[in-house]
Design a protein that fits this description.
Number of helices: 22
Bound molecules: arginine
Helix content: 40-55%
CATH class of one domain: Mainly Alpha
Largest sheet: 4 strands, antiparallel
CATH superfamily of one domain: Isoleucyl-tRNA Synthetase, Domain 1
Distance between the termini: 32 Å
Strand content: 5-15%
Radius of gyration: 28 Å
Number of strands: 13
Strand order of the largest sheet: 1-2-4-3
Structural class: alpha/beta
């Protein structure tokens, strides 16, 4: 259930009955356990505006909150400090709700009215191999995809691969050149190196450069022979990407690929439509949209160039055509762009143009889900030791190797095969979680040691916490799955707190979907896992008398299921044993 929303209904009613319907209740989960489960902070603001005593106002609100107690939902409502209202939920209410959630295979999370939500990710460039810059897009995009699907939406990746542009002339020329010596397949096995060599040839040989330029013209002119070469290159590069997707366990495959070139035929019509509507104008021969809402440093509207003077199209043109497609063909209700924060201005200009042009109605939400840069330990953008960009596939392989070492140390009697399976699950999840557990908008420091640690807010910690619960449940000989009728009794305050936290799952998932902030869920899971483990250390479970023991086992089971569901939503691997 959406617990916070549920309690807030009562708070809103109490505000209304106290003559405060225009003031927000400001109801939040309590900041400390000693403040109960929820706190209402709105009394102070309202009192200030009305110039009355906040504590008196808080008392009035509390009187109007009496139903919460009468209905057995709250057991204590008190006023603290300047007028904070603290609500403690009753054990009976919490147990009852928890039991319902336990009996529901979606942990009580309702499906929302279905929206069509294309998510623009990972959207790497095909000229080079996928590098760490696309790691964040992949991980964050995939978590959002999973959360939105779980909530009942038709969410899917639209992989806006950079598969077009002048670089391809150079790459095709080099492909033809290496072919002559008969080893283009081999050469293309390492795209990064291929790109470097092609660039070197381009710079050192005028003839090479000439051919490259003519290929670009032929490519744009739709020459079948050159297109065929281009297609071959793109295929090979895509194969590299798909390998990475697979390794990362993304919900993306070839059916999600919609590279930039998809929109080639729509570029001129898009520009024409904007010119006809009077939104794009001629500026020194180029076609430009001037955006009034965004001013440059001199206070002039910023120019969003959509066609160059020579008739060439740009990144912006493709994105405009692409939005038309997503809105008109895909019928998108909401479009997410999981793209580096450094492209913020581009998306602001893009969305402003789209709204001006009516390519999307106001009902369609266009969101730039921006993320910061991945930094090395030195605080500079993450690079290899020799200053090159880090290939994603190498990074992922390294994660698995490092995890394998740890697993071997911890558990020496596992078979190589077991070690490998666990290491893959731990290594890849660690990389994902290190990213997902931070606020995506900030830069973050990539650190092997901290992400692979079994302590702290890490994937291995969550994975391990889950296995501990599983082994507890296995040890409790009677099959608890069948004992859904066992009452949950929340007698200890710690039990009540744990149950309340478990009941907040839906609130959290809904807020992740609304704000595209996976770290809300990550923090929640970490808190849940640590609260449970403190509980487990403090209170006996298996040695208790039957009713208490069964009740605690049910709480353990609910915690395990919630952890598993949450980890699934973040795209983390869940293990039964480690
Ligand atoms: N290929 C671009 C890059 O690597 C990202 C594309 C993002 N998506 C978009 N529709 N512009 O920077």
């Amino acid at each position: 259930m959406e617990l916070q929303k549920f309690i807030n209904k009562y708070a809103e009613k109490a505000f209304q009955d106290s003559g405060l319907s225009s003031y927000p209740t400001l109801l939040y989960p309590a900041s400390k356990p000693e403040f109960g489960h929820y706190q209402i902070n709105g009394a102070m603001g309202a009192a200030k505006a009305l110039k009355i005593n906040p504590r008196e106002l808080a008392e009035k609100i509390v009187n109007n909150l009496a139903t919460l107690k009468e209905e057995g939902i709250a057991e204590k409502i008190e006023i603290l400090g300047a007028g904070f209202i603290n609500i403690s939920l009753s054990g009976k209410f919490l147990s009852q709700q928890a039991k319902e959630v336990l009996q529901n295979d979606r942990l009580g999370v309702k499906k929302q009215p279905k929206q069509i939500i294309p998510i623009d990710y990972p959207s790497a460039n095909l000229a080079k191999e996928m590098h760490v810059g696309h790691l964040r897009a992949s991980i964050i995009g995939d978590a959002l995809n999973r959360v939105l699907r779980f909530l009942g939406h038709d969410a899917f990746s639209q992989d806006h691969q950079g598969d077009w542009g002048t670089q391809f002339g150079m790459l095709i020329t080099y492909m033809v050149e290496t072919e002559k010596v008969g080893d283009s397949q081999v050469a293309l096995a390492d795209l990064e190196e291929f790109y470097r060599n092609a660039k070197k040839r381009f710079e050192e040989s005028e003839e090479f450069a000439e051919t490259a330029r003519s290929y670009v013209v032929q490519l744009q002119g739709g020459d079948e022979k050159v297109l065929e070469l281009w297609r071959r290159f793109v295929k090979i590069s895509q194969k590299h990407c798909l390998e990475v997707y697979k390794k990362l366990g993304l919900l993306v495959d070839e059916t999600n690929i919609k590279g930039e070139s998809t929109y080639n035929d729509d570029l001129q019509p898009t520009v024409d439509e904007l010119v006809e509507k009077g939104i794009a104008v001629d500026s020194d021969g180029a076609k430009v949209v001037f955006i009034d809402e965004i001013k440059d440093k001199d206070g002039n509207p910023t120019p969003f160039i959509i066609q160059k003077r020579d008739g060439g199209f740009l990144y912006s043109t493709t994105d405009l055509a692409c939005i038309r497609y997503r809105v008109r063909q895909l019928k998108a209700d909401r479009i997410l762009y999981v793209v580096d924060a450094r492209q913020s201005l581009h998306f602001k200009e893009l969305f402003a143009t789209v709204h001006k042009a009516g390519f999307a109605s106001d009902k369609v939400n266009l969101e730039h889900v921006a993320f910061g840069t991945m930094m090395g330990k030195d605080g500079k953008p993450f690079k290899t030791r020799d200053g090159n960009t880090v290939k994603l596939i190498n990074l992922l392989n390294e994660a698995v190797e490092r995890a394998a070492k740890l697993v071997r140390q911890k558990n020496s009697d596992l078979s190589e095969e077991e070690i490998n399976r666990i290491a893959t699950a731990v290594g890849i999840s660690s990389i994902k979680y290190a990213d997902l557990s931070k606020n995506r908008t900030s830069d973050y420091i990539f650190n092997w040691e901290s992400m692979l640690s079994f302590e702290g807010n890490t994937a291995p910690y969550l994975q391990y916490a889950y296995t501990r619960i599983q082994s507890l449940l296995t040890k409790s000989d009677q099959s608890i799955e069948n004992n859904v009728d066992d009452a949950i009794m929340a007698t200890e305050q710690d039990e009540k707190n744990l149950l309340c936290m478990l009941l907040q799952f839906e609130d959290i998932v809904v807020s992740v979907a609304r704000e595209c902030m996976p770290h809300y869920l990550a923090s929640y899971l970490y808190q849940l896992a640590s609260s449970f483990s403190r509980f487990y250390e403090k209170y006996p479970i298996l040695k208790e008398k039957e009713d208490v023991r069964n009740s605690r086992l049910q709480i353990a089971r609910l915690t395990g299921r919630t952890l598993k569901q949450g980890m699934d939503l973040l795209g983390l691997a869940v293990l039964d044993k480690m």
